[in-house]
Amino acid sequence: MDAGVRRVMGLISEMNVRYVVPVYQRPYSWGEEQCLQLWDDILACGRSREQTHFTGSIVTMQDGTASPQGVASLAVIDGQQRITTIALLLVALARYADAHGKERLPFSRQEILMSGYLTNPFRSGDDHYKLTLSKGDRATFRAVIDQLEDPSRPAPEGPSRILDNLALFERRLDALANVATVWEGLRRLEVVSVTMAQGRDNAQLIFESMNSTGKDLSAADLIRNFVLMKYPLDRQAQAYQTYWKPLEDVLAPLADEDAFDDFIRCFFQMAYAPERLGGADLYQVFKRYVSANAYDANDRMGFLCLRLKDFAGYYVDAVRGGLSAADDADPVARRTSFHLAGIARLGGSAARPLVLELFRSCRRRECTRGQLADMLGVLESYLLRRAVCDCEGSAQEHFLRHLVAKLAAVRSAGEKYFESYVALFLVEEGTPRRFPTDEEFRRALLTRDCFGFAQAPFLLARLNARLAAGAAGAAPDDAAEDAVIACAAAGVPGSAADASALPEGWGVEHVMPVGALADPAWAQALGPDARLAFERGVNALGNLAPSAYPYDLQDGTLAQKQGRLARDADGRSVDAPLCRDVIAAQAWGPTQIEARGRALADVALGAWPLPHMDAATLEAFRPSRRAAQVKTVTWQDLVDSGVVQMDDVLVSVSPMYPGRATVTSTGRIMLATGETFDEPTAAYERFLGSVGAHETGLNGWTHWRLGEGGPLLDQLR
């Protein structure tokens, strides 16, 4: 490794050298703030005349080879934002010199082009360009250079940070009294230049140790660099296309630059449950995960990327609230999407690790697709009931994290996944983590302020669709979601396509208005104790309805309200099931509000049911009974006690997939591939994958024997 302080202009103008931004680096991302900081530094340096200015580091990696034209490629490990911005400033200076030919300037367009700052003038193809950016920015930047060399070429167009920052520098130069100051400042700009040799220096460690003065790297940037730096320079582009880009493509529909960071947090919250990651450094967690699972050995990083891609698909479905590749003709897929939509609105990011775990269980065939839809329905009911009952908060977040860990234990023990999942909700009865009972849920629906409830639009949309399903002849049971979905998709008034939101522009309307006490007719309808009746009823569930005119008639008469509830915003007639009883009412007061509230509460009990399990089965899952049943002896216990020892052989019991593993000196299970694991199930799952079998979620404790004809590992516990 060679390191030293260099003048930036001397560094980038070296002949027969080109700087290449590797595919794993993030796109050019400096904004106005970072550009103006560099601009101010350059001006201060230029005006000083006696001082240099240090502006960070540029770290490159060389592989010791050169192109047929004799140009060496240096991969930019750190400093690509800085070197790109300096190149843009040089382009702006060249354009300025060309447009102000009568000014006496210490530089010219021709000098900038021929001195090697932006190009290798006598080389062609890729070797001609001094700086090659990653693919997203490469074409735009090259078009800028091409147009500078030949003004007859078309100028690049379209939204681009490169073009935005180039325009920023051009405006700054036009407004500057003495442009020569910028040139002088650039000439005095210094960096620490670090050049590493592939195979001799650890680029990743050096990259992590550098202090960036620019825009902080996200977890996605750091993890992408970590993954692709594991490959030699000549394989990085292929590894990016084969392993990393497919992962990015899966997340791309979210159009959120923070999507990867949130996804990876959800993934690790699932993987390390019940540990609470909170504000943990995701990059450090990722490296810990890679090391613990030996993904950095035997070229397994690609396998990890493919695994993450699968979970990224589940994450996208969880965020968007529906299956991305669902078959509309498949009732199970429709039901799954229906509940995902509800969970997305109710649970936010806290529920996503559990959703990933449920998808994983289905992929491993621990549950059927129908059971997956049912489990998502249980989760939606849990979240909605607790939201209505105002018992969300830390206890709920704690329960969801620990539920993921308990389901992993269910998997390891080889128990029935679906039954265990339902039971783990129900055994929390009487605790702060409880699944609200029908009585508690009904009471909350009838007594709480439903207008101020954050989920009121969702609640009314689903109730409206549920009533529509009933009118269409659907049975009021747990399978009625299909009819709800069908009605919503057919355009039932007051329901979005997923029956999870009111149509755009609609809102929640009070039937009895908030100004009822000031209106003689409404006050009379409230009865003798008008104030008490008003306070009890104005924000009650029975007094709310979806409307395309939620603010136009806040204090209107009953007849006016009924007329508006029967029409959409364009004046067309609508028949929203949730509004039929209001439109048909001859009067509206406490009696009607209470009766409608009770009827809607009954509908809600069916829409978000409490799951059931027979008492005998549930009793087996209660914590005290469970503690006596679960086998607590771990693999490490068997190693520590000497039951299994170094060089012992584990034999697969499967006649279709025979195979062996050995116990290492540190007590880990090593497969024939050289991969090691710290517990039997993970080792068996990977063993099946290595021989071409589909992951089935088989319990390693019951599928490894200790030696030929020996006992199952589970029998040793």
From TrEMBL:
<dbReference type="Pfam" id="PF03235">
    <property type="entry name" value="GmrSD_N"/>
</dbReference>
<dbReference type="Pfam" id="PF18755">
    <property type="entry name" value="RAMA"/>
</dbReference>
<dbReference type="InterPro" id="IPR040843">
    <property type="entry name" value="RAMA"/>
</dbReference>
<dbReference type="InterPro" id="IPR004919">
    <property type="entry name" value="GmrSD_N"/>
</dbReference>
<feature type="domain" description="GmrSD restriction endonucleases N-terminal">
    <location>
        <begin position="12"/>
        <end position="227"/>
    </location>
</feature>
<protein>
    <recommendedName>
        <fullName>DUF262 domain-containing protein</fullName>
    </recommendedName>
</protein>
<feature type="domain" description="RAMA">
    <location>
        <begin position="622"/>
        <end position="717"/>
    </location>
</feature>
